[in-house]
Write a structure and sequence with these properties.
By secondary structure, the protein is of the alpha/beta class. The protein contains 22 helices and 27 strands. It has four domains: 33 residues, no CATH class; 181 residues, DHBP synthase; 150 residues, Nucleotidyltransferase, domain 5 (2-Layer Sandwich); 238 residues, ATPase, nucleotide binding domain (Nucleotidyltransferase, domain 5, 2-Layer Sandwich). The radius of gyration is 26 Å and the shape is globular.
């Protein structure tokens, strides 16, 4: 507010000890405070102040898309009741199916469309005011384009004065999604908005109070009546997380910087006995996101007035964050500590629960670079802060076309089938083969036979994708996690089945010798799934798949004889899987820990990296 000097009246009230506005940090009035204005795509002002509110509401009601400057950046608003308006927004933003968040005018209106538990109600009304994923009611009357084929909707309530003014006049739900282009940071100033959101927004409702840095809306959901943060940003940042160390121990170790991964990027610093995790930045593949990542590192170190003694990064050599860490380490002449991806996932959850280890960590996600140079992702690790031992993992399979498999679950399904049936795969009658077509299927078989551009992986996330494709739920993903989400939602519909025989469908074996990691063989399950796909419904199969994974966790936990089990990684954003696993593990006498204060996905990597770095020999020996 330093750009808004107080007028005489406000200055008098600010200095008067008897006035309620005495030394109020946000003191302002219509004469000396920020102003709002409505402008068109060229920046020409159409209306100011109260008229800007009225005209903005008229635009939304008539089906237009409005860019609204909020607290941490611009949002794109459109009428959530209008099928045509939301379709226009999807078309312009090139976002065909990924769910949109909805801003409701009141909790009463929200309850007309969504089921709200006491915990969810508390989250919606909290000072953090996040987007909360809620179950749709059968009477959900908003356009189906908000979250296609999704039983949940991301809901929030007004959290800024401008929101309240707009919603008080609109009195109807609106789409309120991030004001950015795909994979770019949220836009924070008017000039950039006019450039980056040109062709998306029809008009811009702005104010003249500057935004220092982009901070997106936080996204949370409840799992087993507990908060689970999926995107940690506005409202939660920069709230520190406490470490289970004494002040003297922390001071001796000094500050560490952790730069996270490539996707859902965040950075973290340790100072004294705290870890400060930054806001969500996003995918570092774009120039704009990487620039924001660099600025966030600078901001974190400047805001907390610290200099790092070491910098931690992911083990993957090609991540933008890893390359940055090596450049920074050389420039500052400080140790660079590469951290294995899944080790960081488990430790991030250990930190918030005050666990020192060792624990049995179940780290399931899309992919993370392993020490052996392959892509891990279906891991059981015995670990503490200082290191880990690989206890078990999925039977490896190949990804024909590499990263293309992330967008095409049908390729993953083909790989699973080809591992089991070989050339007979080309003659199978199943959804992924229908989607691929004969020509592409033959090309993939050639890649598999010649082992060209077919990296090996143990990824549980990709296994979810493959099963989703085999069940005909999703062949091509339009956003990250779409296939796995479809499998989860189908599983919610299914009935609880009998426990499976792991020895028959998911046999565990030591590939090399009795001291090597256990391998979880999925091939017998795939064989049975294909042979019985006409007998069982997709929802029944999806439910049983989730139950099988829970049984696997139990079996390995009992073999290892570990009493403390930590579940982390992006796969555990799955409510069905997490709920089943926690309930069954607890029934068997295990203590189970999941992420509540930091995301279980890659948004929590920096937290785990920071703590592993502090425990590393590189820092201890300094």
């Amino acid at each position: 507010m330093h750009e808004f000097p107080l007028c005489n009246d406000c200055q008098t009230e600010y200095n008067d000890e008897s006035d309620r506005r005495f030394h109020a940090e946000t003191i302002a009035c219509p004469a000396c405070g920020p102003h709002i204005s409505l402008c068109d795509q060229t920046g020409k002002i159409l209306a100011k102040r109260e008229d800007a509110i009225t005209q903005s509401c008229l635009l939304i009601r008539s089906g237009h898309i409005l860019a609204v400057k909020g607290l941490g950046g611009f949002q794109l608003w459109s009428d959530a009741l209008s099928h045509e308006a939301v379709q226009t927004l999807r078309s312009r933003k090139h976002r065909p199916r990924k769910p949109f968040a909805v801003l409701f005018p009141s909790i009463a209106t929200l309850r007309e469309h969504c089921l709200v538990s006491p915990k969810e109600n508390a989250l919606l009304r909290s000072s953090e005011a996040p987007i909360v994923l809620l179950k749709k009611k059968p009477s959900f009357a908003l356009t189906s384009l908000i979250a296609p084929d999704n039983p949940y909707v991301g809901a929030m309530l007004p959290y800024t004065p401008l929101h309240h003014l707009l919603m008080a006049e609109l009195l109807t739900p609106v789409i309120a999604t991030s004001g950015n282009r795909s994979d770019e940071p949220i836009v924070i100033d008017q000039d950039t908005a006019l450039q980056r959101l040109h062709g998306i927004a029809d008009a811009f409702l702005t104010h003249n109070r500057p935004i220092a840095r982009p901070v997106d809306d936080s996204v949370v959901r409840t799992v087993n009546h507990e908060q689970s943060i999926l995107r940690r940003a506005r409202g939660y940042v920069p709230r520190p997380l406490l470490m289970n160390t004494t002040h003297d121990e922390s001071a001796a170790l000094g500050t560490t910087l952790a730069v996270g991964g490539q996707l859902k990027s965040t950075v973290a610093i340790t100072t004294h006995n705290q870890v400060i995790l930054s806001q969500h930045i996003g995918d570092l593949s774009t120039r704009e996101a990487y620039s924001q990542f660099e600025q966030t590192v600078t901001d974190q170190l400047r805001l907390f007035n610290v200099q790092p003694r070491a910098v931690a990064c992911d083990l993957h050599p090609d991540y933008h964050s890893t390359l940055f860490a090596h450049q920074l380490g050389k420039r500052l002449d400080i140790p660079i500590v590469p951290v294995q991806h899944h080790h960081a996932h488990i430790v991030s959850s250990m930190v918030e629960h005050g666990l020192q280890g060792p624990v049995l960590g179940v780290a399931w996600d899309g992919a993370g670079y392993g020490p052996d140079g392959t892509l891990w992702g279906g891991e059981f690790l015995r670990c503490d802060y200082s290191g880990f031992e690989r206890i078990a993992h999925l039977q490896p399979f190949r990804l024909p076309g590499g990263e293309t498999c992330m967008r095409e679950p049908r390729r993953v399904a083909f790989s699973l089938l080809y591992e089991v049936f070989g050339e007979e795969t080309l003659d199978l009658d199943c959804p992924p083969l229908h989607s691929l077509g004969a020509s592409l299927a033959k090309s993939l078989a050639t890649l598999m036979d010649k082992q060209v551009h077919c990296p090996s992986t143990t990824s549980m996330g990709r296994l979810f994708d493959g099963i989703s494709s085999l069940l005909g739920l999703c062949q091509i993903s339009t956003f990250e996690g779409e296939a796995a989400m479809a499998l989860e939602f189908e599983g919610h519909k299914g009935q609880m089945g009998k426990d499976c025989s792991l020895e028959t469908l998911w046999p565990l074996s030591n590939t090399h010798d009795e001291h090597s990691a256990l391998t979880i063989d999925w091939r017998p399950y795939i064989k049975q799934l294909v042979r019985q796909h006409h007998r069982n419904s997709a929802e029944e199969t999806a439910r049983q798949f989730h139950q099988h994974l829970t049984d696997i966790i139990i079996a390995i936990a009992e073999k290892v004889e570990s009493t403390h089990i930590v579940l982390s990684g992006g796969v555990f954003q799955n409510v069905l899987l997490t709920s089943l696993a926690v309930a069954k593990l607890q029934t068997h006498g295990f203590s189970v820990y999941t992420s509540h204060k930091a995301p279980p996905n890659d948004g929590g990597l920096a937290l785990g990296q920071a703590m592993i770095c502090r425990a590393s020999k590189a820092l201890q020996s300094q």
